[in-house]
Amino acid sequence: MNFETIVFYVFAALTVFAALRVITSRNPVHAALFLVLAFCSMAGIWMLLEAEFLAITLVLVYVGAVMVLFLFVVMMLDINLVQLREGFWRWLLFGAALAGLMAFEMIWVLGSSRIFAGRIAIKHAADYSNTKELGRLMYTDYVYPFEIAAVILLLAMVAAIALTFRRRKDAKSQAVAKQVAVRKADRLRLIKMPAENRARQGLDSTEEVAR
Length: 211
Prior knowledge:
The protein has helices at residues 3-24, 28-48, 52-76, 81-85, 92-110, 113-116, 130-138, 143-164, 176-180, 184-187, 194-210. The chain is built from eleven helices and no strands. By secondary structure, the protein is mainly alpha-helical. The longest helix has 25 residues, at 52-76.
């Protein structure tokens, strides 16, 4: 057993342990942190497979963005843990059966002779860059599917904003066209107040008395 195999088993054990703690932890914040540990250990396995781009994407996107959002949501919401655990034992058999089915499918696929027949792991040179090769394939052979996926994601973002947008009645906004077309007569008006007239009359009477 070489060093890479030992590191793989360490990362695999951490991943399985963290995944089990995600679903068995009593505290939602602890469950989210164990999910972060599972992502980091999976990133280590991707690094062993020389998939550096997928490893750094898993850390930056899921650990750095998605899990931070999960933690904010968990801390902001008032989650009733007692009500949350009520359906655990009810769906335990169904979840165990589904997990067993998925494990059987993975073992059946990985143990198939058609997949690994005559194939060995390819060792690349020290200057090999998985990110460079992935970018070259993405922007040459798969440039059209990449652009189509980008357009679909943009449409999904616009649709999500349009569906959740609500116009508030008390919201105030600027009318630029009206501001540009405004005139001085629309903003400024000079009027004579009655108090000013009385003060002027009182001043005139005082001047007459003085004379």
